[in-house]
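Supplementary notes for students who missed Thursday's class. We covered one full example, reproduced here. Read the sequence, then the structure, then the short commentary at the end.
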Amino acid sequence: MNKLNLKSTEVLKKKFETELSGYSAQEVDKFLDLILSDYKYYEEAMKSQQEAITERLNVINDRDEEIEKLNIELKNLKAQLIETAKASDYNLYQEIKKIKKKLNN
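Structure (token representation):
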């Protein structure tokens, strides 16, 4: 992106020297008014776009934080599931052992 050479206030405050065979001051003023209007429009558009970008970046950051929390929770739940499965397997093993013992007696 190219840097702008002028700001709208600089265009507004610009004064030209008049010469005998110079340009029409009214015509120059009208043209500068058009330029000034464009600058103001682009400055507002850029400001609005920057605000929208900042807002979207904040939403992305919030979502990234939420994803990180969910990933931690998922990891913890997986660990709990593994422990529950191990405990369940152990309990089944103990029950099978009891049943076998009863059958062998």
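Commentary. The radius of gyration is 37 Å. The mean pLDDT is 87. If anything here is unclear, bring it to office hours.
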